[in-house]
Structures are given as structure tokens and as C-alpha cells.
Amino acid sequence: MSATSKPSADPSPTASLSPSQRENETAATIRAHLRWGWWSLLIFLSLGVALEAFHGFKADFYLNVSLETRRLMWTLAHAHGTLLGLVNIAFAATLRSVPQWDERSRGLASGCLKAASLLLPAGFFLGGIKVYGGDPGLGIVLVPVGALLLFVTVFLTARSLAAEPAASSSFAPPPSPETGGRKSGRK
């Protein structure tokens, strides 16, 4: 290699991916979010059953009037965890319909969603373990961080869909056989 020729520095490590490599990367991300979503549903629906059992067995550590904050925090952990499990499944479905979503933005949205799916329910759950005079414990500080990451995910996903040209939508109906693919003014 001569002194005047330099190797090209590609700013994006995924910019040089072939279409099949890009497809494999997207498929791996879809599977990861499907796995994450379904396991989250199992975990947080199980938490919901446990909370119901605490009610049924009149567990004092859960139903004591002075621990109302714990009940609220753990109910919020169950609800947010379950909802975020469904959001992960919806995100996986969305990835399939936006094949040309920029890899960097898609990766950031994916990572933020996974982090939010951990931080939001964990913050509520940890905030309910030790309650200080009606206030949640220190774990609650994870909630705003998780919420911010969820907003980033939603923004990036919405932006990717807004940038998608309507003509390339995979949900566009095929041309009807009667018109031979041409638009007709007559019925």
C-alpha cells in the first residue's frame, strides 16, 4: 500500500453489510425481542399471580395498611413489566415492516427498549421492598431513567415509520387481476 492511499474508514460498521447479512441481523433482533417479550410476559404475569395470592392469603407484609406504598409499587412493577413485554413483541413485529430502518437507529431503539424493560419494572419493584414512611425506597430512581429510554425507543420507532415511503410498504395490496395492475377510472 502506498503512502498516498489510505484504507477507507467506514463510520458505520454495518454500512458494508450485504443484504443477506442485514436480513440476518434484523431477524436476530426480531427473535431477541420476541424472546424478551414472551419471557417478560411469563415473569410479570407470574408476579401478578403472586400478588393475587398475597391478597388471598392475607399476607401482612403486603396488605398491612402502613405498606400501601409497597402494594402500589409492586402492582406498578407487574403492570409495567407485562406492558413492556407486549411492547417488545410489537417492536419485533414493527421491525419486519421497516426493513430499511437505519441499523444504528434500530440498534439504539432496540437497546433502549431492552434497558427500559428492565429498569421500569425493577425500579417499581425495588422501590416497594423497603418503604420509608409512605415513600418508596431508593430503587424508584430507576423509573425515570427507564421511562426516558422508553421515550427514545418510541421516538426512534415512530420516526423510522414516518420516513418510510408509502410505495415500499409491505402491506400494500397487490394489483387486482381485473385491471392488470393499472389504475382504472371505471368500475
Structure at a glance:
By secondary structure, the chain is mostly helical. It has five helices and no strands.
Features:
187 residues, mainly alpha, 5 helices, elongated, disordered N terminus
What does the model show?
The protein has one domain. The protein contains five helices and no strands. The N terminus is likely disordered. Helices cover about 65% and strands about 0% of the residues. It is elongated. α1 packs antiparallel against α3, α1 runs parallel beside α4 and α3 runs antiparallel to α4. The protein is an all-alpha fold and about 190 residues long.
In terms of per-residue confidence, which ranges show pLDDT below 50 for 5 or more consecutive residues? 1-14
- Overall mean pLDDT score? 85
* Structural class by sheet pairing and helices: mainly alpha
Share of helical residues: 55-70%
The biggest sheet, with number of strands, parallel, antiparallel or mixed sense and barrel status, is: none
N/C terminus separation: 67 Å
Number of domains: 1
Can you count the beta strands?
A: 0
Question: What is the gyration radius calculated from CA atoms?
Answer: 23 Å
Which percent band covers the strand fraction?
under 5%
| Secondary-structure element order, N to C | HHHHH
- With helices defined by DSSP (H or I, 4 residues minimum), what is the helix count? 5
Shape: elongated
